[in-house]
Amino acid sequence: MKVNTAERDLLERELFLVEAGIRGERRLQKKFIEFYSSEPFEILWNTSLTLGNWPVQIDGLLLTSKVAVILESKNISGELHFENKTDEFFRYDANGVKTIMDNPAVQVEKHIRFIRMWFAENKIRLPVDGLLVFTALKAELCSLPKNIRTCRHHHMVELLFKTIEEYPSSPQQNRHVLKKYMKILEKQLTPYTQKPIAVQYSLDPRLFEQGIYCDACQTFNVSRQRRRWQCDACGKTSVNAGEEAVLDYFAIFGFQANNEKLRKFLNVDDRHLVKRLLSQEILTKDGSRRHSKYSMNKTGNLSE
Ligand SMILES: [Zn+2]
Predict the structure, then answer these.
(1) Ligand 1 centroid to 304 CA: how many Å?
(2) Among candidates 181, 192, 179, 184, which has minimal Cα distance to 47?
(3) CA 275 from chain center: how many Å?
(4) Which of 31, 125, 259, 287 is deepest in the core (most CB within 10 A)?
């Protein structure tokens, strides 16, 4: 796994330990304990749902009698800025280095759209709203996105109550109906997998260096030669450098890969070679290594 400059430090410090990826989500759940309401509610953590071939992972889904609220956590530290004119999102780290990142508010919008459609298909009659929660301890929100409610995790519960207040009560949505909705959701959950690193940290795909990594000289110059992997820079051979790189791809970007994207990421021209890498059993394997958490359990998502 590899990224450039500022992001590289971040990743090396935190992300090589997969646990860091879920730290933010845990913080969110811990804070939610303070959500105490006499009104009925249900909460689902780490929800994975699909619409057709479109899979979505949602950190938290709160069902109340008035509205369903999507909770999306982001573990990004530094000074955070939303530039609403351009829809850009960027941060300044402790050293003043500016990094443009994927705008997490856009992702929440997408998830709201997804859940609205999912609810319509499954006859869940609740309006859908969303909340973007920044969970990093050293995060400063310098500006907010226009369309998506956003806060740091300390303010989450207050903002939740405020959000729910804005929706009218509906007498037919009682505890019993919410339980029924929960059953519908639980029945259709797909297995939750660790959220891709690029998504969790809003990293732009272009930040990641292309090529296959060589452990020996720490460059990205490994290629396939005579049925084995060999580094063009230092000559070291490897049994599985290509396979490792494919797993890195899934860890970083999630589970929807195609041959073209992988060729670009691996810097490999041979589509047949990439196809072979993708058809390996290792993608469904469970194990103790860090990659195994990202194993593909839905090979159907791998399209050409
Ligand atoms: Zn090398």
Answers:
(1) 30
(2) 192
(3) 25
(4) 31
Q: What is the pLDDT of residues 6-15, one digit of tens each?
A: 555 555 544 4
Specify the pairing of strand 228-231 against strand 222-225: antiparallel
Amino acid 297: pLDDT = 40
Instruction: Report, as an integer, the average pLDDT of 175-189.
Output: 93
Distance of CA 61 to the CA centre of its chain: 15
Distance 207 CA to ligand 1 centre (A): 21
Entry pTM: 0.65
What is the number of other CB atoms lying within 10 angstroms of the CB of residue 99? 20
- Rounded Cα distance, 142 and 50, in Å: 34
Residue pair 67/167 in contact by the 8 Å Cβ criterion: yes
In angstroms, rounded to a whole number, what is the distance separating the alpha carbons of residues 241 and 229? 6
Q: Determine the distance separating the centroid of ligand 1 and the alpha carbon of 238, expressed in angstroms.
A: 10
CA angle 118, 163, 113 (to 5 degrees): 25
CA distance 59 to 25: 7
Q: Distance, CA 119 to ligand 1 centroid (Å)?
A: 51
Quick one: angle between helices 259-266 and 271-278, nearest 10?
Answer: 100
- pLDDT tens across 227-285, in order? 899 999 999 999 888 888 887 787 788 766 777 888 998 999 998 898 888 776 555 43
User: How distant is the alpha carbon of residue 221 from its chain centre?
Assistant: 28
214 CA to middle of ligand 1, Å?
Answer: 5
Using the mean position of ligand 1's atoms as its centre, give its distance from the Cα of residue 213 in Å: 8
The alpha carbon of 269 and the centre of ligand 1 are apart by a number of angstroms equal to: 20
Q: What mean pLDDT comes out for the span 79-90?
A: 92
